[in-house]
Structure formats: C-alpha cells, structure tokens
C-alpha cells in the first residue's frame, strides 16, 4: 500500500489565486496513482495520495525563510 505525499506551496501559479484547485489536485492524484501502477504494478485502489499545501512562511531555502532568501537573490541579481 503506497502512500505518496505531495507538498506544494500556496503561492499560486496564476496571480488571481493562492492555492491548488480541486481539479489540479484530482489530476495529481490520478497521475501519481497511474505512475505507481505503471512502474510498480500497484493497484490504483491500494495507492493513497496526500496533498499538503504549504504556506510561504512555512518553508525555507538556502538556510533562510524563503521570502528573505528571495530578497537576497534580488539584491545580487541571481534570479
């Protein structure tokens, strides 16, 4: 029984939203489940997929909160 956890940031891929849509979540679940079926021959009904949406302030990059890291990148022009 595989359990797959997908973590995505709540930063929207479109400017007008700040989370993954139910349709996108359904597509992620279907795609991951199909991948495990195709590669490992795990039945679809035996695969569990958990999607966690992470707030921007709850993740880091380069040893810093991501907002601070991005500020530093902007200052150096390394974007």
UniProtKB/TrEMBL annotation:
Skewed-composition ranges (Polar residues): 1-10
Pfam families assigned to the protein according to its UniProt record, in alphabetical order: Tautomerase
One term of GO molecular function: isomerase activity
Highest rank taxon of the organism: Bacteria
Alphabetically ordered keywords of this record: Isomerase, Plasmid
Stretches for region Disordered: 1-22
Keyword check for Isomerase: yes
Domain 4-oxalocrotonate tautomerase-like residue range list: 2-67
InterPro entries: 4-OT-like_dom, Tautomerase/MIF_sf
Keyword Isomerase: yes
Family according to the record: Belongs to the 4-oxalocrotonate tautomerase family.
Protein name, per record: 4-oxalocrotonate tautomerase
